[in-house]
Amino acid sequence: MTKIKSIEYFRVLPRWLFVKVCDEEGNSGWGESTLEGHSEAVEGTLNALIRRYEGYEADDIEHLWQSAWRHGFYRGGAVFMSAISGIDIALWDLKARKLKVPIYQLLGGKVRNQVRVYAWIGGDRPSEVEKQARTRIDQGFNAVKMNATADIDWLDSPSALESSLERLKAVKALGVDVALDFHGRLHKPMAKQLARLLEPYTPLFIEEPLLSEHPEGVAQLSKLTTTPIALGERLYSRWDVKRFLEDASVDVLQPDISHVGGISEIKKISAMAEAYDVAIAPHCPLGPIALAASIQVALSTPNFAIQEMSLGIHYNTEAGEHDLHSYLNDVSVFNVVNGHVKAPVGIGLGIEVNEDAVRRVSKLAQPWLPKEFHGVDGAIREW
């Protein structure tokens, strides 16, 4: 048993926040606390957790998690849980590296040898999706996800939904599975219509057809469609998830390992979901550490379905040269073959972070701000 010696965090391009934990014996691990658009808030919370955690036993991961959750009195929410996530992931990485095993071996071992993955096409205002889908097929993917609509009004013209059908049909004609992300952009009057229109064309799932802040609406919508409903990126703990499992309104849960309290919490959420016959498809339009941690969980989780990965996502390409492979010494660990990533053979997270690159980029990286969308009348529309 060795104590935590230091906890550092690094803001890096395009919009990620990495965490490194070291113990007194020189062991170290990496985590990710990325919360898109709120890096500075998470950094402030990390500062408080650093003061709390330094000197604790690094091996006591559950104790550390419970200490952060309960001793702070106020708990939950995106910022607090994202801060916990980075430290938690790093502690699992540190412990597994010290024991010279992959993290999945500490989570009960593998239940599969490879992980199905999907990638984004289309951007915030989706266009040229057929061309981008062909590129994904060439990269080895057999499943993709795109935004269902551009920004849309509370009650919009039904014609605003027609292009959604055309894009879905065009991409499915290439022989890939297609998930559609409503992104919480649609309110109930439009979401009900679009879910009904899409149903004959069998999307893989529809994601956030309504925001999770409207659980009664999600429950109503789930009774109007046979298409699997997915959500969860804006749920931050097992307590947030409870209601959606109890009312049977969600078919696929999408907890984000960097928002939900790390490996410790996502495993508990997955076990809860299994008891309700709900699949897990972790949300992860984020960096390589979050993806590596998600893959370790996916390999050890019976009800895992498919994993999001951010290779070439528009948020990365719009920022320039930094992408999913930018901070890795060996980029082959995320190679996609027949729609799957093989179980990594390395210890810990199964990746080796290029610390020199992280430290260099972190000196200049500025906080990333979400985009703003407004209707023709100037009113705010959902991102």
From TrEMBL:
GO terms for biological process: amino acid catabolic process; D-galactonate catabolic process. It holds the Pfam family MR_MLE_C. It comes from the Eukaryota. GO terms for molecular function: galactonate dehydratase activity; metal ion binding. InterPro entries: DgoD-like (IPR034593), Enolase-like_C_sf (IPR036849), Enolase-like_N (IPR029017), Enolase_C-like (IPR029065), Galactonate_deHydtase (IPR023592), Mandel_Rmase/mucon_lact_enz_CS (IPR018110), Mandelate_racemase_C (IPR013342), Mandelate_racemase_N_dom (IPR013341). Its cofactor is Mg(2+). Keywords: Lyase, Magnesium, Metal-binding. The keyword Lyase applies. Residues 126-228 form the Mandelate racemase/muconate lactonizing enzyme C-terminal domain. NCBIfam families: PRK14017.1. This is Mandelate racemase/muconate lactonizing enzyme C-terminal domain-containing protein. It comes from Glutinoglossum americanum.
